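During the reporting period the student researcher (J.K.) took over the structure-prediction task from the postdoctoral fellow and processed the backlog of single-chain submissions. One of the processed entries is reproduced below for the supervisory committee.
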Amino acid sequence: MIPAPADAEVASAIFGEHLTALKASPQALERGWNITRLGLLGAVVDLTARRRTGEIDRYHVRLSGEFYDLWPPSALFVYHEQSERPRWVEAPPGSRWLPTVTPVPSFAIHSPYQFPDGRQGQLVCCSMTLEYYQSNHSPTAQQSWKQGRHTLAATLHRIHDALNSDSYQGPSGALDT
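J.K. obtained the following structure tokens:
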């Protein structure tokens, strides 16, 4: 099934409710997640990653809720572009803003990735991100996003777990963009 955008009013209400709950959650507070709201259907979450050597790296994940919550939020690693009009931009390969994670059966980061619709971009490849479904992956029944059960918190927890596992290798490069 190809994901279709949700009703914008419904999506923004649910996205906002779930984002507020996430901000107040013990896990978000414990993990030091700083959450910046970007309009009604977006947010950037600051996450930390721990290398096997103990070094800490910081990343930013932009969540977008245009398909939420029938589908998971879109999730992309981004950086804050300092320009005439500062904005959050997709982290390029070879930058310190894109993590390297050794692929495991339920998580990988592909950049660039060629999507079936012809566009190329980043794919945080797990069943808790919208792009996973847009890339024609087929999750098992246990892996599938379940509306009403899963929230954007599930997306962030899955990314956090990957960034704090033995699969995490550090930034994809030193380019500071």
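The committee noted the following: The chain has four helices and nine strands.
J.K. will present the remaining backlog at the next meeting.
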